[in-house]
Specification:
Layout: E1 2-6, E2 9-13, H1 21-29, E3 47-50, E4 53-56, E5 69-71, H2 84-91, H3 101-114, H4 120-126, H5 136-148
Parallel strand pairs: 1-5
Antiparallel strand pairs: 1-2, 3-4, 3-5
This protein binds FE2/S2 (inorganic) cluster (FES) (2 copies).
Length: about 150
């Protein structure tokens, strides 16, 4: 059994404590916005927030988030209003296939919470997510636009 707050709701799941958080989110809870890319903490497709920090959920056991506050891409919008990163993503037409983008948006949201006006060097250091469609330039432009919003 594991208990945590997920997108503002108290949540309990009956799973082996070593189960990766990604699979708990996708299979036990049914939130499939968080994606499986590599499974070894390299690509960032599975990024969620744990107590506000970006975490690659494929590589975290559910027991490690006991009692913590989790946010997934499904929990970013508040009362149907997208956050400024999501809005910038739409305005800059960032996604191509979209597969990496939920993780990208979660990582960028965490970066802007930490550093509201990131430099290109800050972006390079913090956003190491992999996009096979090569949206990196659009991602950078949209981050700067979100920082100005
Ligand atoms: S699936 Fe988790 S980092 Fe790639
Ligand atoms: S938009 Fe296709 S992998 Fe990033």
């Amino acid at each position: 059994m594991a208990s945590f707050t997920l997108n503002g709701k108290p949540t309990q799941v009956d799973v082996d404590p070593g189960t990766p958080l990604l699979w708990v989110l996708r299979e036990q809870v049914g939130l499939t916005g968080t994606k499986y890319g590599c499974g070894v903490a390299q690509c960032g497709a599975c990024t969620v927030h744990v107590d506000g920090k970006p975490v690659r959920s494929c590589s975290v056991a559910v027991s490690d988030v006991e009692g913590k506050k989790l946010t997934t891409i499904e929990g970013l919008a508040k009362n149907g209003v997208l956050n400024k990163v999501q809005k910038a993503w739409l305005e800059h037409d960032v996604p191509q296939c979209g597969f990496c983008q939920a993780g990208m948006i979660m990582a960028v949201t965490a970066l802007l919470n930490e550093k509201p006006k990131p430099t290109d060097a800050d972006i390079d250091a913090a956003i190491t997510n992999i996009c096979r469609c090569g949206t990196f330039q659009q991602v950078r432009e949209a981050i700067h636009a979100a920082a100005r919003a």
